[in-house]
Amino acid sequence: MVTDPIADYLTRIRNAQMANHRIVEIPASNLKKRITEILYDKGYILKYKFEDDSKQGVIKIALKYDPATKLPVIRSLERVSRPGLRTYSKPEDFKRVKNGLGVAIISTSKGVMTDKEAKAMNVGGEVLCNIF
After folding, report:
1. How far apart are CA 36 and CA 50, in angstroms?
2. Helical residues (DSSP H) of 42-125, grouped into ranges
3. How far apart are CA 102 and CA 73, in angstroms?
């Protein structure tokens, strides 16, 4: 049993990149699916596929690497809010990730979105993770 599924999600991606895998499989949930969609929209992953199995389903993510240097596009995956220490923020207090080059994923009352989208909608929420 995993006590922090978001940290498990980020760790699986991080480990797959360190091992230079092309595809990583992650147990699915609605929150993980939305985070995957955000990663795809922002260009951090190549593509993804949601598959249903007899249990909870699987997310297959094709990782993206720089063609010239063969380094992963995602440089850093950092869990901000943890089960032991939740981190909430107002829209005016969102911290920029790597001087605006990265993205923070926020869980708001309007759904899971990036920090820029939450700021535009003027909603705060729980800061799930930072990606650069």
Report:
1. 10
2. 115-121
3. 11
